[in-house]
Each structure stands twice: as C-alpha cells, then as structure tokens.
Amino acid sequence: MDNELTALGIIFTEFYYWLTVVIMFLIHVGFCMYEVGASRHKNHMHTLMKNTMIIPLVTVTFFFFGWWIYFAFPNGPWITGGLVEASHAVVNSEAMGVHMGAGEFNGWERINGVFWAAFLLFSWTAASIVSGSVIERIKSSGFWILAVLIGSVFWIIDAAWGWHAEGWMVQLLGYHDAYASGVIHAIAGGFALGVLIPLGARIGKFSADGTPRNINPRNPWLVTIGLFLIYTGFWGFYVACNIPMWDIQAGDGVFYSATNIYLAPTTLSGITFNFLMSLSGGLMAGYVVSKGDPFWTYSSGLAGIIAASAGNDLYHPIQAMFIAAATIPVIYKLHFWVERRFKIDDAVGAVAVHGYAGFIGVVVAGFMLWGYPSSPNPEYATVNPLGQFVGALIMFGLLGFLPGFVFASLLKKFDMLRVPPEVEILGLDISARVSEINDEQAIIDAEREYLNSN
C-alpha cells in the first residue's frame, strides 16, 4: 500500500464488504425459518435441508465459475463486444485466495474475497426465493440442480448485463436497478414460476372443481421471525449494493462519495430513508388489502422494499413509500388470479412477492427516473420507460421464467423433479426415515425376544 491514507481506504472497503456478508447471512437464516414455518410438520426437515444445502452447492459452483461470469459477460458477450478478461476472477487466480496486494490485479487483491462473498449471498437469496415456492413436493436432488443454475449461472448473467457499470443493458437500454428489483427478485420469481408449471400443485391444493384450498403456515411464529430476519438481512443487502468510497471526478481527488453499483453517487443516509419508507408502505398496504392477514402483511413489507429497490438510490422517501404501497394490491390480486386461472401452487407467494414486485419496480423506475443518467458515462443511454420495460422482460422472462421452465421440464422427463405421490402423502420426512423406523422396530423386537427367552 502506497501510504497511510491508501491503506485506510483499502482496509475500510475490505471490512465494509465483510460486514455486509455477516448481515446478509441473516437472510438465509430467515428463509430457512420462514420455509419451515410455512411447511407442514411431516415435511419440516426436508424443507430445512433442501434450503440448507444451497449454501455449499452454490458456494462451490460460484467460486469455480459464477464469479468469473460477472466480469466476463457484461458485453453479452457479442452484443456490445466479446468476453472481457477477468484475471482476478478465474478459479486458478492468485487473487482467489490470500493475497496481500502487490498491484498486479488492479486493486482486487485485498477485496476480491469479500466482494465475491457479497455477490455469493445474493446467489443464495436467488436460490432461496425459488426454494420457498416449491416446498413439500420437489425432490431435493432436482431442486439442488435448479439452485445451482439460478444461483451460479442465470442470475449472475443478468447481473453482468444490467448490474455492472459497463453492462450492455446499461449502455444500450439505460437500464437502472440500483438495489436489484429485477436483477435478483424478478429473475428468481420468474424462474420459480417456470419451475412450478412442470412441478405441479401439491396433492389436495385444488378441489375437484378447481377451487384452490388454503394450506396455511403450520408455525406462524417461525414465519414471522423468519421474515423479520430477512428484513434485517436486507440492510446488508442494500449496503452491499453500494461502493463505500469512490473518487467520483475521474481520479482528481476532489470528490469522494458512496456510489451505487453503477458508480454513480448516492448516500447511505438516502437509502436508509427509502428502505424504511418502502417497508412501511408495503406493510400498511398489505395489512389493508389482506384484511389483516399476518402472512401477507409481513410478505407485503418485503414486496414493498423490492418494488422500490430499483430506484431507491434516487427516490424521495415519500415517493418510495407510495411506489411500495401501490404495488401491493397489484401483486396480491395477481397471485390469486394466477393461482385460480392456471392452477399454480406457489406455497409462499414467492412469484408475487419477488417476481411481480420486482418486475413492477423496474418498470416504475423507468417513469420515475426518466431522463436520469443510467451511469456516470455520458455516452450511455439515459433511464427511460421502454428500456426499463425491456429490461424487466429480460430479467423475469428470458433469464428467469424460460430457463426455469426448460430445466424443470427436463428434470421431470428424467423423473428427477417430483417425489412420488405416496411419499408426498406420507410426508417427505417420514418417508426418509422408513428404514430407520424399521431398524428401530427390529431392535425392539429382538430385545423382547431376548427377554422372553430368558
């Protein structure tokens, strides 16, 4: 490090991202509790382990190739250029491990691991969004394949395209999605919808005439705690979407600021206002539209944040609150309409809360921020409604729904998607323990036989 000020800046940035990872870990804790609380007792351990194993599977695959995709694919590739060299992100790079920073990787030596981990936690989140929607009938092995695809391939492609300072969607469409309404939530919600179609509904979800039945959360307290932990983890999520300290004016050393992911200036103070106001707008609207239903009230708080996230680096706090509140009736009614019309069994409303809210959030930002720079680069397109709408379609449809549907259909063809009906009826936990139960009974019978013979 050149001097004390340089050292302080590097160490601060390193610690900044490390801390966001610690906070974001609570999102995954929250998803685990939330899903277990939403599932029936006979499926609790299967639900928990299905989501727990996202951690090692997505972590390892993201280390091997997911991180490289983000830096290699901002041009498409072959939309605005070819593959970009990313020497610090390839699996055999010296920067993918302990490195004291000699300058050969353009400053990535000291922050590569913590920045990688921040993006990795976004990957877990994308996979966990899908996880909740498919509980109580999906095979663990099939889900884990899908988790790797969404967590280490498709969401990171969309991040390279639309969540990178030089992404082709930013350049050509003027795409702006500061806190990932589309980049995380719309794509994961679309992917979940694509999986749910070939997966099918849980047995008993629909009556003979097609009327949906409620399969209510079995532990509302776990659902409540889980969602509040997700709210808490979202603070880390938001902060990780920022660069903590950047020389805004082309390295002249005059103006330093926090920036959004596109390296445009914003403030942590501003996003704090907007985060809490959008959460509040979502909670109030959810309480009203659901007539006080706790599950949808809490979920609507999350959806409110997601709906405002695309522009929460620039919105006024009251604007963020109204965008959040206005989105909730739309996604709430759309969830139940899709459920009735297409017999889609989304167990936790993930498609609505993440997918529909994220899609709407991206589109609304196109109108609210019309004409704003999408990037500090004046040659890039400015934010506009058409660019945001096309971007939302790419996130939800092209990179979300389509891959989810195709790969889930392939898994179904090879009988790797859904558990057999008898296993689902008995319960995924109980079915997994059949041999254990038989062994226990055999031991009991042997003990009785021994006592009787003596």
Structure explained in plain terms:
With 454 residues, the protein is mostly helical. The protein has 2 domains: 4-242 and 258-416, Ammonium transporter fold, CATH 1.10.3430.10; 419-449. Helix content is 65%, strand content 2%. The chain contains 16 helices and 2 strands. It has helices spanning 4-38, 44-52, 54-72, 112-133, 140-162, 168-173, 181-199, 220-240, 268-289, 294-309, 317-342, 350-368, 385-413, 421-426, 428-432, 434-453, and strands at residues 243-247, 256-259. Strands 1-2 form a two-stranded antiparallel ribbon. Strand 1 and strand 2 (256-259) form a beta hairpin. Helix 9 packs across helix 11 and helix 10 (294-309) crosses helix 11. The longest helix is centred in the N-terminal third of the chain and has 35 residues, at 4-38. The mean pLDDT is 94.
In short:
With 454 residues, the protein is mainly alpha-helical. The protein has 16 helices and two strands.
Set down the secondary structure blueprint.
Blueprint: H1 4-38, H2 44-52, H3 54-72, H4 112-133, H5 140-162, H6 168-173, H7 181-199, H8 220-240, E1 243-247, E2 256-259, H9 268-289, H10 294-309, H11 317-342, H12 350-368, H13 385-413, H14 421-426, H15 428-432, H16 434-453
Antiparallel strand pairs: 1-2
